[in-house]
Structures are given as C-alpha cells and as structure tokens.
Design a protein that fits this description.
mainly alpha; YczE/YyaS-like
C-alpha cells in the first residue's frame, strides 16, 4: 500500500508540473507579460534559437546547482531528484505554448481574462505539488535554500528572487530590443494572485475533504446501529 501511495504522490507532482506549464504558457499568451519565474526564459527565447521550455529547463539546472553551492553538505540527498523536474517542466511549458498557439487576444479585457485563467492553472499546479510533498521544484528549492542559509523568511526571499529575475529580463530586453518584453502589469498580477489562488484551492479541497470524512463517519455509525 505504501508503494502505491508513493507512486500516486509522484503522479500528483507530475500533474502539478503539467498545470504549471499550461498556466505559464497561457499567461505568456495573454500579451500582458508572463510570470516572474518565466520572464527570463521568455525573453531569452526571443533572442536565441531555443524554446521557452528549453530555457526553463536550463534555468532549473542553474537553480539546482545554486542550491548545492548554497547548502553544500546540508543539501538533502533525496532532492537530487530535482534533476528530473527540469525536463518535465520544460516539456510542459512548450506543450502549453503549442496548445495555446492560436490564443492571441487583441482586446484588453480578453487579455486580462486569459491572464487570470493562466494564474488559476498555475496556482492549481503549485497546490498539487504541495499536496504531493515529494520533490521541491528547483525554482522554489533555490529560494528555500537561500532563505535557510540567511535565516530569512521564505516569502521575503521569494519576492527579492522573483524581482531579480524580472530585472535581469528587463535589462536584457532593453539592451537587445530597445524596449521591455515579457514583463508588464500581468507579471505583477501573477506575483500577487497565484499565491492567493493557491490558498483558495487549499481551502476548497480541505472543505470537501472534511465533508467526505463526516459522510464516511456517519455511514459507519449508521451501519453499526443496524
């Protein structure tokens, strides 16, 4: 039974990566800017002959190496499995870009709706990874490593980390194109909304879980009385 539970948890984790890939792709297609974590791969993909997903994979490897450098001997051995996260994540981002290839909204309201849907999918992916509780996504892992090393709050380090990626993306974009690509109001909206939507998912699933538990207990009591 324990073996099947572990397999299920890894399946949920992969499913979470899938929804994250779809969410990141959809926010990018909104035309209002992409997510902070995807801003750098998005800009680089417009300069070099590699896809957004391929740059996402390469960036995840960089994050993984930074984790090892920061934590050194304290790096958890089981987290070496993060090496397998990058290829899946990058593939799902590119898959999402292909699925939503025809999505190119011109009306601002539609762009905003596409962005919000992307945020919802991304938040669902994040929530599923938390529920799976097996491997840390390298993007989150590097933030956790830095926050642990510096004894700073994860949320504060996350803000600085995401902001740094956006600044680098902006600098590269300005230097290459003369204007800003990939970082817009949608980037800020994603940064604010995704965490809060994840909390909503958590509350909803907890509600149904508690309701299901109550129903099971009531059925058990009914059977015992009969």
């Amino acid at each position: 039974m324990c073996k099947y539970k572990i397999i299920l948890r890894y399946f949920i984790f992969i499913l979470g990566l899938f929804f994250m890939g779809l969410g990141i792709s959809l926010t990018s297609k909104s035309g209002l800017g992409t997510t902070p974590i995807n801003s750098l791969p998005y800009v680089l993909s417009m300069i070099f002959p590699l896809t957004v997903g391929q740059f996402t994979f390469l960036l995840s490897i960089v994050f993984f190496l930074v984790e090892i450098i920061v934590l050194r001997k304290d790096f958890p051995k089981e987290q070496y499995l993060q090496l397998f996260v990058g290829p899946f994540f990058g593939f799902f981002v590119d898959l999402g870009m292909n699925i939503f290839a025809s999505v190119n909204p011109n009306i601002y309201l539609i762009k905003m709706l596409v962005l919000l849907l992307g945020c919802s999918l991304l938040a669902l992916g994040v929530y599923l990874q938390v529920v799976a509780n097996v491997i840390i996504n390298p993007g989150e892992g590097v933030v956790k490593a830095i926050s642990n090393k510096l004894a700073k709050k994860f949320g504060n380090v996350k803000i600085i980390f995401d902001s740094t990626l956006c600044i680098i993306a902006i600098i590269i974009s300005l230097f290459t194109f003369g204007n800003i690509k990939g970082v817009r109001e949608g980037t800020v909206i994603c940064a604010i909304l995704v965490g809060n939507i994840t909390k909503i998912y958590s509350a909803v699933f907890q509600y149904f879980k508690s309701r299901n538990t109550i129903c099971i207990n009531q059925d058990s009591e009914s059977n015992q009385s009969v």
